[in-house]
Batch of 4 targets.
Target 1
Amino acid sequence: MRKPLVMGNWKLNGTKESVTALVNALVEPANNAANVEVAVCAPAIFIGLVEQLANGSALQYGSEDCDVHNSGAFTGENSPVMIKEFGCKYAIVGHSERRAYHNETNEVVAAKFQAAQNADLVPVLCIGESLEQFEAGQTADVCKTQLKAVIDLCGIESFEKAVIAYEPIWAIGTGKTATPEIAQNVHSQIRAYLASFNADVAAKVQILYGGSCNAKTAPELFKQPDIDGGLVGGASLKPADFSAIIEAAK
Ligand code: PGA
């Protein structure tokens, strides 16, 4: 059975004070959620602080991105090895905001996925279509193309140690959550596509839903058979809301 995973994505938000308050508030809900994995992905500059505060608790954490290189002349980047050194379990790769604002192609995202795994991080591969692609009925094709780039570079078995997050771009930060039916339909197509390469890997991989996942929408989403939890942006910044989402995953 797949264990649900509820992961916060803080994006470019937080202060030392708010991060301290948030992590302190989440340690107990994470410790009390024995059948749910709970994680937060923080801006790189706060990861050391999260490490200190979450130390010894069940709260896992990760980065919101990682570079493809481990070291070198790449000003401003954060390497997977450095991220690992600060105790991270996860690294998000291919978030639609990185794809849109930093021109990350499927090939770059696949290279980041590989670099994260090489550093013993669990990549959280974000995939999903734009509104235009959704309206044109291209959702499944877009997701398959994004997955295929990783399969080509890393092999299907790489998904044994990875998480997938389906995030329709039109649902991110818009308050327009995909309906449980739409999301389940896409998740099952993602799983079927992976199964066409390796059924065992497909059955085991956690596929999270992201895009205006909040305390209200999470319960019905998480009841769907192929939705294994959520990647939560805005609602992960509020301890009460994020705790309610963890509850919904139990
Ligand atoms: P949202 O963001 O929950 O604020 O829509 C989700 C994400 O971008 O991961």
Note: The longest helix spans residues 16-31.
Target 2
Amino acid sequence: MTATTSDIERAAGLLRDGGLVALPTETVYGLGANAEDPTAVAQIFQVKGRPPSHPLIVHIAGAEHLHAWVEEVPATARLLAERFWPGPLTLVLRRGSRVPLEATGGLETVAVRVPDHPVALALLSAFGGGVTAPSANRFGSVSPTTADHVRAELGDAVDFVLDGGPCQVGVESTIVDVTGGRPTILRPGGVTREDLEAVLGGPVAVPSTSHVRVPGQHPSHYAPRARVALVESEKVVAEAELAQEQGHQVGVFLPHSLAGASVKAHAVVALPGSTAAYAHGLYGYLRELDERGCDLIVASLPAEKGLGLAIANRLRRAAGPRASA
Ligand code: TXA
Ligand code: MG
């Protein structure tokens, strides 16, 4: 059921009172709080189980408000905001004094974005301020792309869940640091590197390992309960069948190039041909294979261009070494 005007009023009131509201965006659902309320912001970290040093994204209603949240708006930031907002692009800029250090994990920079979702935009307008919102999942696990995912994962820990239907993009925003010389992608996401480079008229940097505190860059993140094994696409069927024979409950991400192949495994997800459809479905597929009782997911990486860069990034993180319990 999509949020009504009175749901939005109620959510805006809860934010004003220091509450937590889950909100739909075009990427994933966020767990929102008043960005200027350090107590509410601290509550987000508590509910997510997220270390307080990991910074949050401030969501605002439009590019025209950006200057209020940052120390300065460099020309590059203005250009990217004009072209991609509202949309799945987050800009890292120098922090304005309005942003509490609790929201930035103590950093002197702040991440800002304008989400492209009517419910999120209506909430931001009704509320009137900035909303810090990480993905509405427990730290390290798979981001929610439906309101049901949020309810299943966070339950009563959130005061209200605004339902805006399934998230269209399905993977998080692209984070671009524009504080330095060359713009740098800190996390690939819904806006592609190619689109950024076309607008900027030059290359953007994509460091393989980031020194910035980006929790999405921890080895194991975006992870389902099942272990994820990445193999070459031609080996997906053979590896899956071998593991199934060895006693695993295997879930398979069957590449589109192998569509129709039969696989003796516990559960099979037939991947779509387009990367947009793959990104849209990705977190749902991981959740589905968990729900179907898989303990191992066998997948391959897509080509790392366009949205494939973000999908491959998330699959690598999902397959990364896990912290021991
Ligand atoms: O699509 C998205 O970005 C979603 C929706 C809800 O907007 N949000 C999201 O938030 O993915 P979260 O908290 O799960 O991831 C935010 C990322 C983290 O990796 C964080 O480290 C990074 O943004 N970040 C935030 N502030 C930063 C800063 N000042 N410098 C570098 N990275 C920052
Ligand atoms: Mg997240």
Note: The chain has a mean pLDDT of 95.
Target 3
Amino acid sequence: MNIDQVKAALREQRIETPSWGYGNSGTRFKTFAAPGAARTVWEKLDDAAEVQRLTGIAPSVALHIPWDEVEDYGELRRYAEERSLSIGAINPNVFQEDVYKLGSVTSPFEEVREQAIGHLLDCVEVMKQTGSRDLSLWFADGTNYPGQDDLRARKRHLRAALKRVHDALPDGARMLVEYKLFEPAFYYTDLFDWGAAYAHCLAVGEKAQVLVDLGHHAQGVNIEGIVAFLLDEGRLGGFHFNARRYADDDLIVGTTNPFELFAIYAELVAAEQSSDDLTRTTAQNVAYMIDQSHNIEPKVEAMLYSVLNCQEAYAKALLIDRDLLREAQAAGDVLGAHRVLADAFRTDVRSLLAEVREEMGVPADPIATYRASSYQQKVAQERGTAAGGGGYPVKEKVLADK
Ligand code: PSV
Ligand code: MN
């Protein structure tokens, strides 16, 4: 790739931000109130518009329903469009109602399973009204004790639910199936890893693809390997980017895991350039989404960091000398091949990115510009400080604040 091609690819890069990353959020122990944190979906869109204005590569926002429920989704869509945004993935929420204590679509109770499927189907309607392409599915379903429930029955319930929702999707829409090894269930999770998600996707149909959330793996798992496999199978649908140290920490992507992020983008760039049609089109349609619930960090600045860290990782991945890499790999040159990759990772891309940003009409240093602006003071003044809370996770808190 010559430098003009690298710059063109960087201009085309897109990262979707999550509405829930702009609100107050915390841990099981405490939610600290951040002055000016968005209180409603409208304010979340205002913040997302600021991130887009400063970066130029974050023009869509994922919604979580019912956290972001509104009377008129057409109005929400227009509000977004007036701010140069579009509505991204719709995330149904089947983990907060009391009835879901033993699971949603895998509950042992048929009426509960039907309620959950009903909500998923309602979210397909929300997709139609907001112009969203992707239904992003994550289930908190699982069990806490051996013997608690019939694991094969739960698998069959999950399959049946996914199939019904899949078949209700309009043309051109997709469902992204997210897995997570544990939490909130601690003994068994119904969608426990990428293989389980992949098997369900294959069984339910072409519109089903796997979503990889970086936080949802055990220590040491090679995520770029999973990414390469799913790209080659044509079943990688999207990402939830974040960084983790221990569990699903939801830290800013690229802070603790910059090399992992780079290695993932390296696989994606290779797939974008592949001569295999399926791999290439799969890579071109990947939904790049952030999934972070900021705990102690200021929300808008945290989101800016996240988007820019993805931009930096992508730039470095674009700079990999692919011919040299192929040559070294074909010769079995272990460290020669590694060196090609490491060289790209070590490249300082800050001035390249500053140039690209200026060409795109956004600030060369979006964080510095944001810090020098009065946006944070303005929203703090207008919105005040929404109640934080004690010992309650973000997700329940956001709902309680509605
Ligand atoms: C679950 O931990 C998760 O990663 C899912 O994507 C949810 O939709 C999201 O976090 C927000 O709760
Ligand atoms: Mn996620």
Note: The domain at 3-381 is CATH 3.20.20.150 (TIM Barrel).
Target 4
Amino acid sequence: MKMSVLVLPGDGIGTEVTREAVRVLERVATKFGHDLVLTEGLLGGIAIHKTGKPMPEETEELAHEADATLLGAVGLPEFDDAPPQLRPEKGLLGIRKTLGVYANLRPVRSFKSLLDSSPLKNERVDGVDMIIVRELNGGLYYGLPRGVEGEGLEERGTNTMTYTRAEIQRITRMAFGLARNRRKRVTSVDKSNVLETSQLWRKVVNEVAAEYPDVQLDHLLVDNAAMQLILNPKQFDVMLTENMFGDILSDEGSVLSGSIGMLPSASIGAQRPNGAFVGLYEPVHGSAPDIAGQNKANPLGAIGSVAAMLEYSFQLIDEATAVNRAIDAVLDSGHVTADLRPKGAPASTSDVGTAICDAIG
Ligand code: NAD
């Protein structure tokens, strides 16, 4: 199979974890006999430095030409006080929007060998296997009007949370479709006791649920969901939620896996005629300026994102399984980065990449 992949390493540890993820992709292509064509583009802080824009037009064009896009992370401290259009994160929102990827899938599972790395008691975490389905194209992060205006005590910041019926329907169908191949349970998270957007959300989710009588639906308010995720995470199978709630809850969920560096994500959009999805794949974590350039970032979230790419954008299930098995094997070996608190000396980012490639064979 010909696989054309755009690589956007981004900033900070994004470049380091992406390098290892690309090595893994190359190893899979060689082992399974696929023709991998890689292109590289600029996004985020590095793009601002080199072109003045967080998402240059060339990056947009390359993303549309590729079958799938692999992203590291964006964000550099020197842009912390920059105006919104000149922030690296603008590039991230831009690439998601231009690709029309509306469903962010964030699997959260516990790994036996990492149970001691979780700050929660082992029995609470052991057996967690859930997926957070986060709406990615709407809500507070994109709604208009937005901005800061006025002066003095009247200076006012505004953001708008808005969702259409169509946006809620498509993400809900995605969640129910996934639940059908899992434990057939969807928990929809909203704040319908306060927000009108959430009241519409709940109404539409209930309507769509009627199309899936084999899947059980329940609703949780987001504040309770945040608590339940810590108190009893095993109760969840598919957690469906809007953009900002999903952003926050999935970082909370990362604690269950032992480190945010473990979590992959797939952002998927339209389905192509061959059944494959348009997709953007990236680890959940950010550019981690505190450890950037030290070859100590955990690359497993980025490598897990490659597995998701093989599954959703190329429908290569055996190849995806090979990558996930390699991750399990490396975790079992204890050859892991410092964030996972190994018993022996921590491995470097590139050591872990090499171990994964070796495990794939
Ligand atoms: P972060 O995820 O970068 O880091 C949070 C903490 O987790 C840090 O202590 C970091 O060292 C650690 N960490 C993160 N990834 C790790 C990994 N792979 N291995 C080991 N440790 C890891 O979040 P932050 O510090 O809030 O944000 C830093 C920058 O990243 C900001 O500019 C932010 O806007 C950006 N950001 C980008 C994305 C993205 O590109 N998708 C997501 C979140 C944050």
Note: The two ends are 19 Å apart (CA to CA).
